């Protein structure tokens, strides 16, 4: 009769011992992490790794704990990197160690582990290397792609002309132009702006992106057991299913019309690679990886570039002196005879500087996609264990007072030397840095420069009468709110040969 209580007591003691032993081992493993706010037992520091805009707390934490600090997602540490020197040291100088990606259960379920942000390192290397090579072969950064962007700029100019100088919302027109460039590169497809297929592509891609940034994703990634709850499952994967269906139609069409040795676009290149490796067991090139890669490139290429162009026009309308100076430089270089080309960029240092400064101020991605450590690493006096999530706080780089003369002001002079020539700035990390830098950076840079220049050559942009001018900080703080993008006026310019 006394044996059972004794056994229960012994079992409780053993379980308690094992629990505290696991806590001790974890504490020992993490004892050399960077400092940070004290976590609550089991809950971590929810304010700082929260479900919505947690990075707004990072500047204060940086002031208190320095450029490297630790916050906690439940019982898992998350290391945040701040400032140019630290972020560069991690992503560039220690690129191999910081090039991992954490497993995000929702994303992994949707992608099957085949996306360009997969945590499977060898798969990521192969897919990324092939993707960049294929896009280059297709003309990314070359004359063929420049020609496509210039042609699309003319379609956009025609659409803007039809507004007759009256207030209009530029959001959809810019989205149409960027979507056409992206779909041409990936799927070989070009649409009229009124084509329902183009509108479907824009809407489904936008919904997909908004859904992936919904707090529900972060919540279910934290508690993946909830992923199979029917109502949550539908909410999590509905938008990705719609975009998958759209892209699948084009992949099937390409399979039927593929001409070996004569690829027309990225899908064709990928299909040829699948055929080439079909005899290899476990090849990373398959229908699933093709589908997920195309979706990833659509999502990355469309929304970020169109958002940047929207902000370009808003900044131009709010800084008329800057706009006039850009227009003067365009006129001098092109003599009003043609649209500016990518080769003109070297002769248009002010315009190039304005575009870069707009991207710096826009700060479109305050934090880079989460990284993770590929191995235990000694970094700046701390020990960061393998698998630890790392957040590069890109905002702190783009506004680092040690790198920018007036970090909180819109100042194209940041990118101009004493002779008025363009100067690159190493702290310009709008596309992140290192091994995980944005794969579509070259196309995005080309699109923004060419389309922005083409529009300002033909139009002067302004806010509707009665709209108060916004300074740089106000624009930056409200960049996500469409109220500053909702109405612009485009007045045609008189160009003299």
Short summary:
The protein is an alpha+beta fold and 497 residues long. The protein is built from 17 helices and eight strands.
List keywords for this structure.
alpha+beta; two-stranded antiparallel ribbon; 53% helix; 497 residues; 17 helices
Question: What features would you describe in this structure?
Answer:
By secondary structure, the protein is an alpha+beta fold. Helices cover 53% and strands 6% of the residues. It is built from 17 helices and eight strands. The chain has helices spanning 3-30, 58-65, 84-93, 105-111, 121-138, 143-161, 171-187, 196-212, 215-222, 230-257, 266-276, 287-318, 320-334, 349-362, 394-398, 441-458, 472-477; strands spanning 68-73, 76-81, 371-372, 377-379, 382-384, 389-392, 459-462, 489-492. The strands form three sheets. It has a four-stranded mixed beta sheet with strand order 1-2-6-3. A two-stranded antiparallel sheet has the order 4-5. Strands 7-8 form a two-stranded antiparallel ribbon. A hairpin with a 2-residue loop joins β1 and β2 (76-81). α7 (171-187) packs across α8 (196-212), α7 (171-187) runs antiparallel to α12 and α8 crosses α10 (230-257). The longest helix is centred in the middle third of the chain and has 32 residues, at 287-318. The protein is globular, with a radius of gyration of 25 Å. It starts with a helix and ends in a 5-residue tail after the last strand.
